[in-house]
Specification:
Blueprint (H helix, E strand, L loop, with lengths): L9 H10 L3 E2 H11 L8 H13 L3 E8 L2 E8 L1 H26 L5 H11 L4 H7 L10
Antiparallel strand pairs: 1-3, 2-3
Helix pairs in contact: 1-4, 2-3, 4-5
Length: 141
């Protein structure tokens, strides 16, 4: 997916990836690509500035580590980053559910209706795994 289509969603994606544990910039890019089965293949020129912006905003913190003789900046979520991610995820789920309901309404199959209910009820990723066997929600992602 092209970076410009992700405007407004990039922060949530990066915070979500780092909620799984700290990582350096390229690792964040790889995790995002892998978790989305290749849907999100973002260039370094998109991700690195966003990581720096999130750090300046206090949502991420970083430390320098030497790995295999190379210095790498390791990013991790701050408490403010965890809160921001939770709020952005809630807003996204609500928007997604309302949009599906509004545009597909009565044409939704029973699974679609359950997904909407889960989104509106503030379901967590674990709830989605039970509802949708989608690669984005795999445990090994």
């Amino acid at each position: 997916m092209k970076a410009e289509k992700l405007k407004g969603h990039l922060d949530l994606l990066l915070l979500s990836v780092l909620s799984g544990g700290p990582g350096h910039g390229y690792e964040v890019i790889t995790r995002l690509r892998d978790r989305s089965d290749g849907a999100f293949q973002l260039p370094e020129g998109t991700v690195y500035p966003a990581l720096h912006r999130l750090e300046s905003a206090g949502l991420l913190a970083s430390t320098w580590e030497v790995v295999a003789g190379r210095r790498r900046r390791i990013y991790h979520l701050t408490l403010a980053g965890e809160r921001a991610m939770a709020e952005q995820a809630r807003q996204w789920r609500e928007f997604f559910a309302r949009a599906l309901k509004r545009f597909l309404g009565p044409d939704l199959d029973p699974l679609g209706k359950r997904i909407i209910e889960a989104c509106l009820d503030g379901a967590h990723q674990e709830d989605y795994r039970r509802l949708i066997p989608h690669p984005m929600f795999r445990d090994d992602a």
